[in-house]
Amino acid sequence: MMLHVKPILSSLMRNKTGPLLLLVQIMLSVAIVANASFIIIERLSLMQRDSGVEETQVFTFNLYAFDTDTDIDLDKQRQRDLAAIRRLPEVIDASTINMSPLGGGGSSSTFTVGESQETSQYAPEAPIFYSDEHLVNTLGVKLIEGRNFYADEVITSGGEAPTLVLVTQVFAQKTWGDESPLGQIIYMGEWGDYPVKVIGVIETLQGAWVDREMNDNSLIFNVPMNGAFHKYVVRSDLDNIASLKEIIPALLHQDEPNRVIKGFKTIAEYRQSAYRAHELMATVLGMMVILLLLITSLGLAGLVMFNVGRRTKQIGTRRALGATKGDIVRFFLVENYIICIIGGSLGAILALQLGEQLMQLYSLPILAPIYPLLTFLGLIVLTTIAVIVPAQKAAMISPATATRSV
Amino acid sequence: MFFYYMDLGWRSIKKTPYLSLLMVLAISIGIGITITTFNVYQQMNTNPAGERSTQLFAVQLMSQGKDTWPDINAQITYQDAMNLRQSTIPTRQIAMYKTGAAVQTGDANFQPMLENIRATDSDFFDLFSVPFIYGAPWDKSIDVDAAYQVVIDADLNQRLFKGENSVGRELYLNQMPYQVVGVIADWHQSPKYYDLNNGPFSDPESIYVPLSLAPIEEFESWGNNQSWNTENIRNYQEGLHSETHWLQYWVELESEQQVQDYQAWLQAYVKQQQGLGRFERDDARGEVSDVQAWLDFNKVVPEDNKILVGLSVLFLVVCLVNMLGLLLAKFLKRAPEVGVRRAIGASRLQIFAQYMIEVAMIGAAGGVFGLLWAWMALSLLTSRFKLGEALTQLDLSMWIFAPMIAIVSTLLAGMYPAWRICRTQPSIYLKSQ
């Protein structure tokens, strides 16, 4: 098949400005679309990460006990509250917790591990949950090795250091490699201070900070938090959550009225707020990509349509001299591909440069070369569609009408 | 002549309706996207301190021990806050932190509310220029000798006292009685530069209590507490003497000289504390940053926004190039017509002006539609992402800014096609007619 590149090239060269503008447009489009879609994919994959929690079934809420009567035993109070909540028929399980997974704020810490003082080293920073034997079931996280706390192992007298810990698989892997984590000791503080023994491994549990790398390293300690400010976590069926928001405060106020109970929020809702910025970024960039492609292809189609009008005589003459309809369509397509290939290649280089700049200025990962390549291929398809419609119209020009005025 | 050209422009636009529509669409979408991202960026990037910005300074101390993180903490410890107060150099200075309590009135039926509280010094209100509706801050002596006095905001005054002058009235915080000494007007700093812990666009506290009550009432910190030391803190009093960072410290320094004196004083303070065995790091130091530097240090404008603004400007360029290509094609098709006009006496300048006016009309339409898109996009983002009106309100300046960049950028883009067309040689076209 003859592509007749040479006459097309020479016609392009005779009227440089129009094709040049198209070239610049394609170049910039490739650069923008490649980088934008890269960021979109990156954000979407961040948002896909599993928290390990039954997010739609689990909700947390806050209690603030403001009674100045210092005789109130907050530990006993908490145990009574949780027992009452667990007795509710709608509730699957309930527990106390110090922070909401994906909640944005809470506790994290680093620990010391090692055989001896000399070989001791820091374990990776980890989000820490303080709770009791009900937390695993309440959150719906999977225990894949070892066991949960027994009820009598939970330290309820408040203010004391924990003795047992459940670790996430990720934390175990980072800290002890392929060694079994069960029975290992982590120290809160310097080596030797406050030893805590690992008794179980959890498959996945994320902490409160979705944007921090350490978020997957969560630990659960066998000491519920103690104090005036409190957080409970409850799991129930999705349909019952709305009614529980009414039932639970009434129930707890019966026992002790002097407290404010509020802030009911499911982990799914926390997820939504936690990833809002990423979702926003992905949405705006997505809008940009779609509109950009729309404008580029519409502009291209408009331009070709216009050129068809201008070249009516030329096309008619060619048809009269024996060119087939396919030849005419092919002419426009080849013209487009020449511009596309040059513009797209330059655009890919520009995209990588832009990606490099973005990586240096901001905390973005480096642009993978597959993105400019895919954008380039996508653009070829899109421009083919944009060109083929007006080109078909051009091919319909009858030689007679076109050459009549000559 | 101007109106005549406008009429000609309108006729020309009508002659190629789809092409004109395409141009307006391209330019308006480009403007719309740019205005949307720029608006959010600008709202985040404002400095609410205004002219006070260069006189207010956040104080930071590099007080961590060896083998800790290398970044200077945004907050300071309670013991340092008490020590910094000894300096006589600043015109005003305050320490503060965010806390909260259950609020009740004397009315037994009143449902207790959990409110955010700022524990601070009496100079807070003058330092940050907080307007009062009733009363005044508590007396300076209370910063040393604690008393149960509060300043509340207009909104809480409405909820508790139906908006009346409540100075002298009583409210209960965690069941302790407090006397209201002042009511401030709605005062919402966005970004909330004086305490960025709970997000730069979070709401202000509704109650202000003397910081001197903290050791007595043991108000918990509801902001950030950062600790580098492995000390075991068992109770509130130990927290006060610990190395935990949890207070914000601000000073007012009115002259360059005062700033230098204060910096020297801070250096001397660090030296003195080193003598006592604290501030172990080699880079132990004190730093002051004015409001703008403080906002930059805390990265109030997220990186994402800068990336979006950058990409949207590139987007606008694509739209302009797109329009430029269409304009060129359109104008060149009209060359024969221009040839005739030139032949019957129109000057190049007149042709140029005529086509520039047509371009400006397209630009203006693009600007108007661009504003419309921006407004739609912002409303959409507000409802979808609960961004808060502060961020997504279309800034007043945008109403002028949007059409202006639309017209200016289309004029710049249109210059080349208009120049090409005005150089038309009449003879060529006359011959072929």
UniProtKB/TrEMBL annotation, chain B:
The chain crosses the membrane at residues 21-41, 307-332, 352-376, 396-419. InterPro entries: ABC3_permease_C (IPR003838), MacB_PCD (IPR025857), Macrolide_Exporter_MacB (IPR050250). Residues 20-268 form the MacB-like periplasmic core domain. It is found in: Cell membrane. Its main location: membrane. The keyword DNA damage does not apply. Keywords: Cell membrane, Membrane, Transmembrane, Transmembrane helix. It is a multi-pass membrane protein. Residues 311-426 form the ABC3 transporter permease C-terminal domain. It comes from the Bacteria. PANTHER family: ABC-TYPE MACROLIDE FAMILY EXPORT SYSTEM PERMEASE COMPONENT 2, MEMBRANE COMPONENT OF TRANSPORTER-RELATED. This is ABC transporter permease. The lineage of its organism: Bacteria, Pseudomonadati, Pseudomonadota, Gammaproteobacteria, Alteromonadales.
